[in-house]
From TrEMBL, chains A, B:
Record flagged with keyword GTP-binding: no
Primary residence: cytoplasm
Domain of life assignment: Bacteria
Pfam family, one: PhoU
Family under the similarity heading: Belongs to the PhoU family.
Cited PANTHER family: PHOSPHATE-SPECIFIC TRANSPORT SYSTEM ACCESSORY PROTEIN PHOU (PTHR42930:SF3)
GO CC list: cytoplasm
The keyword rRNA-binding appears for this protein: no
GO term, biological process aspect, one: phosphate ion transport
Keyword annotations: Cytoplasm, Phosphate transport, Transport
Name of the protein in its database record: Phosphate-specific transport system accessory protein PhoU
Amino acid sequence: MRNRFDNELQTLDETMREMGELCESSISLCIEALMDGNPKKAQEVVAKAVTISRKEREVENMCLKLLMEQQPVATDLRVISAALKMVSDLERIGDQSNDIAEIVITENLSAANDILNLRRMADVVNDMVTSSIEAFVNRDAQLARHVIARDDEVDEAFNDAKQKLIEVFGGKNNVNMEYALNLLMIAKYFERIGDHTVNIAQWVLFAITGVREGNTN
Amino acid sequence: MRNRFDNELQTLDETMREMGELCESSISLCIEALMDGNPKKAQEVVAKAVTISRKEREVENMCLKLLMEQQPVATDLRVISAALKMVSDLERIGDQSNDIAEIVITENLSAANDILNLRRMADVVNDMVTSSIEAFVNRDAQLARHVIARDDEVDEAFNDAKQKLIEVFGGKNNVNMEYALNLLMIAKYFERIGDHTVNIAQWVLFAITGVREGNTN
């Protein structure tokens, strides 16, 4: 019985890791699509978001089944409850990537000169996604805390991006407002991805320590 | 034993309802603060967001304790799992309201003429919050489905707001970019609140029917 249960917990870890990888490649594709003005790459993100949503349901069903049939206690219960919560944040990362991709597809943007430093922002949040999932799979509290600490960097990058837009476009004549608003939304979506990795990391800490720390995003 | 368990489930319902009411009054205060350019009302929203976060932890602890000590099955397990998920969406509604309030406080905005129809948007999402919590407390699937159906209205209102900004500011001279970007962010926060009520309604349906339907936001 315990053996089957352990196998199911391992499948849970593997599926979470798969979802994490899908999120990472979505974020990478988003920034490439944006920098190259390539709607084809953006289309791939849209497809991945569908897969991520499907996997969310798989994990939810897995967790609910484990809760119902195995009546787990202590650490196992914490790990399963944490997975049930984390999976929503992973799905929303897919969703935010999808929102970025849709802007690239419909708005024919080309931000190749990257005045807002969006590539850097994408790299940071991508690292945070990778680390938050690693922290879960390896039950690594230190790595989870590292993810939480990095969120300030992302918030600052969003504020910098907003200021930069005001600096570049504010008080100017004949402003391409649509372009400016779309860039702001993209920066915001990256910032939200950072927030979701913090939520994941906080649930990882709960799974390990049994204590819910800090604020939620 | 069952009696104590029933009492605890009732406390759970009551706390969810309290959180819902805090969210509703936060949204109302946000739109009043914005329309009157009143940072004092916005400060109240900031204080409420702290209370909402604290209540989120209370509900989480309640749910985890019920899962651990009572090993619930069937409908009870579904209700508790749903509450554990929904509470994050409620907390994020508090968070989005807080984000709006912070813009009102720091940016000295006055959108009194309401060119973006934000008051209407606030009214709709406020109704959706109320209904989603009512649907949970009364286990009302029809009301939950009604909330989900209304989200298109909110998405459309956001797109209209964005188009309106482009229309009003695009191609103009000496644009107040900061003002435009802040209004867009506020519209986006209201739209996200709508998304969170849809997530809540979907979990209500799961609690009632045992089936997870539709996509997540």
